[in-house]
Description:
79% helix, mainly alpha, Growth Hormone, Chain: A, 12 helices
Amino acid sequence: MACSAALAACAFAGDPPVPLLYALGGLLAGFGAIQNVTRSAIIPNLVRPEKLRSALALSFGLYQVTLVVGPGLGGLLIAWLGTGGAFTVDAVSCLAMIWALVTMAPQPPQTDDELAPVTIRSSIAEGLRFVRRNEALKGSFAIDLLAMTFGMPRALFAVLALTVFDAGASGTGLLYAAVSAGATVAALTTGWVEHARWLGRIVIGAVTVWGLAIAAAGLMPSIWLAAALLAIAGGADSISAVCRSIINQTVTPEELRGRMSAIFMLVVTSGPRLGDLESGIAASLTTAGVAVVSGGLACVAGVGFIVLLFPALMAYDGRQPVAS
């Protein structure tokens, strides 16, 4: 809330120093990561074990809704109130989050054992050791990193819209929104995963569909066909994300969920950035279309490598109870 208020002040002051904007953007990202990790770790505390899958699917679906509604609402507010007004509305709306936090009951680890005091370093090391020992968990992290590194050409959407489809800024927005729109619909209709058994196989299949849809989008002559395929890709990614979240939260004991979620957040946030770098380099060496197609095919090929490297992901049985 303070960062949004500071950005509003910068906008109203006019011509803010660029280093200050980078600093505020970094603070927003940092505190956002902390609250995302904590909120993710809290979800298993709030619902009965048999409802955990539905709760995770709903949480992910609502997050995808914000990716569609947020940018559109921000654009309308900027057009109506200006940049400073938009940031002011953002800061004031944070009062709703603060109210929710104040009214929320404390969420200590649900364990009967007395937790021994530990240092930050030993706590981090314990979380890393747990992830390293669990093959299904490592496989879910690895396949997400693969999909985002090779199959997420978001950095090229503007290039495709301008140079390939000649659709301008509106076309760029369409390509960005298509992925989130498909992901939103898929996430909010994933009630069927509550009874799914082979969640690892669903993840593998979904990532394969993601890669194929991305590759096909790079071959389309029309932006509408490309957007439709990107929506399919977003839906597949959403199914993969929900199933991976279920696997991660199920195999992780309560007292380690925060640290596992932190590592998961590191993977989730670093993958798209690596994807930006990979797609940019590939496009500079070839063309934007070739970079998109080759990235999608590389993602599909990498899925086979992940299956061989982490067979526990393929064999994961969703009937196992939530870790205690």
